[in-house]
Amino acid sequence: MTGSGSGGAAEVMPPGAREAASQPRPRPGFRPDIEGLRALAIGLVLLYHAGAARLAGGYVGVDVFFVISGFLITGLLVRELGRTGRVSLAGFYARRMRRLLPSALTVLAAVVLVAWLLVSPAGLRDVFLDVVTAALYVVNWRQAAEAVDYSALGTAASPVQHFWSLAVEEQFYAVWPLLLVAVARWGRRRGRDARPWLAGVLAVTAAASFWYALALTRQAAGAAYFSTGTRYWELAAGGLPALVPGSWWRRVPRWAAGTAGLAGVAAIGAAALCFGEDTAFPGPWALLPVLGTVAVVAAGAVAVDAPAGRLLSLAPVRCVGRISYSWYLWHWPFLAFTTVWLGEPPLSVALLAVALSWIPAALTHRYVENRFRHAPERSVRPHRSGLVLGAACTAGAVFCGAVSWTAVPGTRLAEAADAPGAAVLTAGDTDLQRSADALRPLPETAEDDVDDAHDDCLVDQLDATLASGCVYGDTSSGTTVVLFGDSHAVQWTPALKTIAERRGWRLEVLTKSACSPAEVTMWAIQLRRAYTECDTWREAALQRIEAEQPALVVTGARATTPVAGDGTRLGDTAGAELTEEGYAKTLRRLTGTGAKVLTFADNPHPAQDVPSCVSGALDSLADCATAKGDALGFEQVGEVATDEVDGASLIEATPMLCRGGECPAVIGSVVVYRNDDHLTATYVRTMTAWLGGELPVAV
Description:
699 residues; alpha/beta; 2 domains; 7-stranded mixed β-sheet
């Protein structure tokens, strides 16, 4: 990430000239205030990632980096264009590679090594896949796709998750220089100054990106956060001041520049203090830190010794900014692996991890980043060695990740006959399994252990229409049974489908991701907004049920799905109260159809990702169990609502998931959960006999 790079990233002189990190007096053209601005950005990011509650919006530090990168890169290219009449794309990419990739390779290689030591076998493949996508600078696409995947909730953060912002910048670097060269050639052929045209192109593309950011943030804020298209305008906003001729800046009064600089720093600080996880981001609220950063950059172009510039140019501040790229690379793996090792760390431990990450950051900055960046070209062809070095670094990181992925050890798959699952409980076996040499499903693939109804009938969050063709059992039967709810309802289909086939029922599945049957507006965590698609879908499903007059309706939902009120996310207590009221309202509508109504009480929620734990604890499965009180430490909104409605009954599965005071991760050689709250289809299948006894024989 150029914006978070070493001190040289603040240079506005030709890239061929060097500046030693320890040089006491910056030469003319160097922007010490930008080096200090990077320190402000990295400080916000570090404190935010460490969990500082007062800086819940510290993620805006990344936006500051984006603006800085757009300014520096555009300025570098435009100055080369003005000096030589052309832009050497080979030279540009060679310099970027020499500066960024050796340090990135160092960190990615270290992540691979530490992951082998600390991460469970079930989590290793995900880590190594992330390393590959990070090395190729496309990890943000992977994260954007997962950001609207409800099943990704609760999974451990990747130790290279922070590479998403680097990927966005690299993708910008791949496009903007080509666009600049094309516009410059067009202007030269017509004898026109390229700057106004470049500014126009940058402004138009920035406007399109900002519009896209607004639209995607309203629809799916989680995906928008990682998208290149929604972030391009931030880099473009930084590029626009770099296109302003120096003579124009000299016309701006110094007092105006000083005021703008202070206002810009204040805007960045306000965003960090006032924003939070539920802020619609990156549009439109990203305007505050982005325009604030543009103001600071522009103020420094007028007078670098203005008040904000003097503050940012202090030696200690610049020292932090100088190593910000390396520190950014190292801090997140330290935090991620600390979490793997010790569990969710308190603020003091997280801050210590961040502080310790300064040591490899400083070493990497001095012995890797600066050494490769300032190494002289040794090729007879200019920039060839830089391109070769960059390709070698990328290939090396991809090789480390790919080879490690193939070498991950696997668990032996148990034969179906040797994995009775819930049958050991119905047979009266009270001795919980403490070890295993074979399991079913494999912990490494347990996340994907779902019934086909999960893929075919669980409607995506962004879709408000009912899934078609989700009918199982005897499709011509006159007895219709409806399963209605969210992913915690659809997880019961492996058993329900078998029961429907045996009893001659027509089973209709009406389920939607993260959408409770309760008549209340939910809050979509990944979308970061009120879940209006759920409201539309739920009403359509209820009307369909009322029209079909089924004999039996079975509902189910995750009890802890958050609730929206007046467009914001409500607290747990207020949300639970509204959900209980809404669930009771839904149950009354269902019983009003004349159907028998049953509600699944939500299953226990383990304290960790079960497959990851199990894969590393085959000889001590008790380590992966969760105390029953902790696993059920939430308000059972469905149970409360069912108690209030005549004609509605409860199905309580806890006796088949917990024994005594604990809820095991493995029962009868079957992995019970596929993440930290959803049951595996394999285990639910072993509960068929039990569930058959809970359902009415005749409906």
